Amino acid sequence: MASLGLNPKKQSFPAALLLHRQADGGSHFDLLIADRVPSEPDAATVPTYRIAHRPDLLPAQTTVGLERLPLHRERYLTISEPVVLDRDRGTVSLLRRGSAEACADGEYQVQWDDCASQRIRIECENMDCTLTVLSNGTERGR
To answer: Taking the model in full, what pTM does it have?
Structure first.
């Protein structure tokens, strides 16, 4: 599988984990990792992934499938209250906010605002994507 590098420079950009409750009663998580400094709340620039499992709670060395979604608007990186989506798509709520630094091709050090951290790898080949948790908390995966 080819790794997806969001930004080859060692810079930190905003990240957010959202719970998306769908109108039909289903739910999933949306992981947003910006690859630039957000500048316009309505600009659709944020790489986003749908995942069935809450990635920030997965144990180290766990790999799960994820789906690459269209770029999301920057405003979803900064929401604090639940947002009701148009066209009967449900509601999204913020679970965690933080920042992510690209460390290697497809690997990111995510620092959540509550001081928890993770090192993850996102890999995609065509439409098949995976997220691997390399380390959590103090493990840091160096």
So the answer is: 0.88
